[in-house]
Design brief:
binds iron/sulfur cluster; eight-stranded antiparallel β-sheet; 10 strands; alpha+beta
């Protein structure tokens, strides 16, 4: 199990701004709220190295856990080692957020999501450098119908549910939502392709879109 602290995960300001909708990113308030968020949040992350042991048509066995996702299974075709991970902005951020007024909450929500999203990029670079991987991609349960949010429970099993609670104070609600809310979990894997879940997602006007929808790609995952 590897733990990363804020210094290792904190994305640069330009990266954070790249995840904020254009109409907001030019506003002075955003800089103010980024500074404020960094003061309050306790950005932390954890990942482990896990072996890919077996594959079926739309399932893949990581250590002793079967994950159900055709897209993940195809993405792991040549992978032997993968990296389940979790990143959180911490409970203090949630508590502080709850006490803010409407407009502040709006900005903090946008900024908090951008920070936790880009912290995943920091974790990917860290894993590439420390595990001799040329290129990596990630998948998050709940980002595509193919890999529903409920599968997050299995990621918690791989990372050690008790461990996550004791070390990072992160847990799942009965609806499989993470607490603290600004938390993200997923699997980072070595790949020769630049995979992004957004390429398989047709949702229109998504502010979090990272790549164009590519309907032709769906054939690849059939
Ligand atoms: S387009 Fe939006 S909803 Fe779809 S996978 Fe990307 S971030 Fe998620």
């Amino acid at each position: 199990m590897y733990f990363l602290d804020a210094a290792q995960l904190e994305p640069g300001r330009e990266l954070i701004l790249s995840r904020i909708p254009n109409e907001l990113s030019r506003r002075q308030e955003i800089d103010y709220y980024i500074d404020l968020a960094f003061e309050v949040m306790e950005l932390q992350g954890v990942y482990c190295s896990a072996r890919v042991k077996e594959k079926k048509y739309s399932q893949v066995k990581i250590e002793n856990v079967w994950l159900d996702s055709r897209v993940l299974r195809v993405n792991l075709e040549n992978a032997r080692e993968v990296f389940p991970y979790l990143i959180t902005c911490g409970e203090k951020f949630d508590q502080w957020y709850a006490g803010q007024k409407f407009l502040q909450k709006y900005y903090l929500d946008v900024v908090g999501s951008a920070i936790v999203s880009m912290a995943q990029e920091s974790m990917m670079r860290f894993i590439e450098e420390n595990h001799a991987i040329d290129n990596s991609a990630r998948m998050n349960p709940g980002s595509l119908p193919d890999w529903p949010l409920e599968q997050q429970k299995l990621l918690f099993t791989l990372l050690g549910e008790q461990n996550l609670l004791e070390k990072l104070n992160v847990y799942l609600t009965k609806d499989c939502l993470m607490r603290p809310t600004k938390s993200v979990s997923g699997i980072i894997f070595p790949t020769e392709h630049d995979f992004e879940s957004c390429k398989l997602c047709a949702r229109k006007d998504c502010p979090g879109r990272k790549a164009d929808y590519d309907p032709c790609l769906e054939d690849y995952y059939k």
